[in-house]
Amino acid sequence: MTNLFASEGGYQLFELGSAEWFWLTFSLVVSLLALGVGAFAMKGVLAKPTGTAEMEEIAGAVQAHPAESLRKVAVLVRNLDKEVRDGILEAIQQKDSEAGEKVMNLMVTWDDIPQIGGRSLQKALRGVDERQLALALHEVAEEIDQAIKANISERAAALVSEEASLMSAPKKEDIRLARDKIVEGLRELNRNGELTFVEQ
Fold first, then answer.
1. 86 closest CA partner among 100, 71, 99, 73
2. 3-class state of residue 193 by DSSP
3. What is the model's pLDDT at position 45?
């Protein structure tokens, strides 16, 4: 990008190199994340130019609904290149470890399962036995049920259905723990840069 820069004797052309663009993008995203958690200088950052249309949309959401926007910011970070994403998360955690943990967790949630690529989902489901799957799928949304069953073997799906038929009224805590186990597997893949999402 070429811009005009005021200097003594008139205007001078200059260009931003790849390194400058990296730090410009890095600084912008960190600022938006700070807004999301409500931890740093909200009014000052929102008054600055927001850049791309996507950044503009997020900044507007943060300004209107700071708490609700945290998930949206987490998804933005999730979609960045791993190197940039990890640098941003590290910067947030250094400033506020609790906020950093929240952003990391919100990058992948139970409701994301229908949008996760088949191979990634298959990896996350390894080691999750049929009873845990039956608990996790108890009274679950149909699209999540279909996504999980489509990524296990027919035999495993039959065993899950059998386990489910034997359950009368599982405890909510047991259901939550079973779902958390699956989500944690997905988050581990995400941390390693191995989680993929289907195209929307």
1. 100
2. coil
3. 38
pLDDT digits (tens, 9 = 90+) for 14-36: 454 555 555 555 555 655 555 55
Token representation of residue 141 = 């949304």
What domains, with CATH codes, occur in the chain? 2-106 (no CATH), 110-191 (1.10.220.30)
Cα(167)–Cα(198) distance, rounded to whole angstroms? Answer: 33
Contact 45, 103 (CB under 8 A): no
- Give pTM, 2 decimals: 0.68
Q: Give the C-alpha separation, 37 to 99, whole Å.
A: 6
Share in percent of the chain as helix, strand, coil (round to 5): 70, 5, 25
- Measure CA 133 to chain center: 23
Beta-ladder partners of 5: 12
